[in-house]
Amino acid sequence: MGKGDQKTKRGKIHRGTYGKLRPKKGKKNPATTADVPTKQTATKTKEAGKATSDKSLAD
Prior knowledge:
Elements: H1 9-15, H2 39-58
């Protein structure tokens, strides 16, 4: 896994080539954190689910 290994990033730098491990350009659209639910909303949904299941068992 040294300079001559074409599959590693170091080997690609040594040979001056590009590929999946060493792309010419970075990602255009970085991941956003808005899609990830917060802990507060996750706990609220769990509590709401427990409350509805408890009511159905009581009937």
